[in-house]
Amino acid sequence: MRNVAKKQQEPKTAASSASRPYRIEEQVGYLLRRAHQRASAIFQVSIGDPNITPTQYSSMVKLNEYSELSQNLLGRLVGMDKATMQGVVRRLKDRRLVDSRPDPGDARRTLLSLTTDGQRTVNKLLMNGPAVSRETLKPLSGPEQRQLLELLSKIV
Amino acid sequence: MRNVAKKQQEPKTAASSASRPYRIEEQVGYLLRRAHQRASAIFQVSIGDPNITPTQYSSMVKLNEYSELSQNLLGRLVGMDKATMQGVVRRLKDRRLVDSRPDPGDARRTLLSLTTDGQRTVNKLLMNGPAVSRETLKPLSGPEQRQLLELLSKIV
DNA sequence: GCCATATCGTTCGTGTACGCACGATGGCCA
DNA sequence: TGGCCATCGTGCGTACACGAACGATATGGC
Q1: Domain boundaries in chain A?
Q2: For A20-31, how does the pLDDT look when each residue is reduced to its tens digit (9 = 90+)?
Q3: DSSP state string for B13-70
């Protein structure tokens, strides 16, 4: 990795008005993107099933808590757009982990539930869930871990 | 929003062995996904140009600091896979915000730089950058904001 | 009962994100 | 000098993410 591209003398940022310079690496949005990237990578190798993604996992965990949920409500519970939810649910249904039936009381809705196979799968993954979080938080001390979770909760 | 779907009596998580229950809403990965979602939404409405995405923005900011960078090196600086970088750069080049030329010293590389239009655009966006971060961190107190940035830096 | 309004799920388009495989090129060392 | 291995950029496949528009259905106010 030679040729490290020499830095310019002064980043002329137009917004560093006598205060601290604006560094992209210090901005929340940037840090959240990077942190999320790392968390996803750890999830993928530690959850125990390379075919399950983080969003699929949270959807299945929620469906395990509630027996049946409409697609939109599930999306609200796990923080996913209905368009995004559509794709997630389709993939889970293709793999026979989730089943659906029309809501008898509301013809607009579809009720989702885990199949037997889906329940078996979530319960297996749930055993690895804590380890995934532990690994992601490993660089932090115990109090720091709790602090981070609390701060993230506040800005979500 | 009636029909809130009744909760089951006990979430039988298989992993809540006498310790605290496993709640998906308390896991780092989940919180990071939600926080990143919110940060992206705030960016989109506050950066001042709805056609610029967060990743495009950080790429342009880095290209503004360094005069010229190869595509791979830029990707490493802003934390993006080379396959992801490819798409980002293509879109910026399509809009004439970024230009490229072959590296005279290494035929494998392409050197990227901002066009005049690109420089004008970044400098305009950089004026809004601090406001985006401020808005994202608004739910937190001053010390909490600094703590969050520090903790995120540690786990990236 | 009727109609304006809202919700539900789908589809389309665009943009990140990354693994994998590929061909071209470069660096290093036997 | 030749060959091995790394790096660079590209292309493909898959998956999240969301705005916008759509048709079907439900609800509340009149």
Answers
A1: 50-155
A2: 899 999 999 999
A3: -SS-SSS----GGGSHHHHHHHHHHHHHHHHHHHSS-TT--HHHHHHHHHHHHBS-EE
Residues 112-131 of B with CB under 8 A from A: 123, 126-127, 129-130
Q: Which of A125, A106, A120, A110 is nearest to A51 (CA)?
A: A125
Tell me which residues of chain B, numbers 12 to 51, contact chain A at a CB-CB cutoff of 8 Å: 12-15, 22, 24, 26-40, 42-43
Question: Which tokens in the block code for residue B61?
Answer: 């900011």
Write the pLDDT tens digit of every residue in B57-78.
999 999 999 999 999 999 999 9
Q: How many other CB atoms are there within 10 angstroms of residue A132's CB atom? A: 23
Tens-place pLDDT, residues B4-57: 444 444 444 454 456 789 999 999 999 999 999 999 999 999 999 999 999 999
The spacing between the Cα labelled CA in A8 and the C1' in C17, in angstroms, equals: 30
Angle separating helix axes B54-65 and B71-78, nearest 10 degrees: 110
> What is the CATH code of the structural domain delimited by B26-155?
1.10.10.10
d(CA A125, CA B6): 24
Rounded to 10 degrees, the C-alpha dihedral A128/A130/A136/A140 comes to: -150
User: What's the Cα-to-Cα distance from A73 to each of A69, A94, B4, B100, rounded to whole Å?
Assistant: 6, 21, 8, 47
CATH number of A50-155: 1.10.10.10
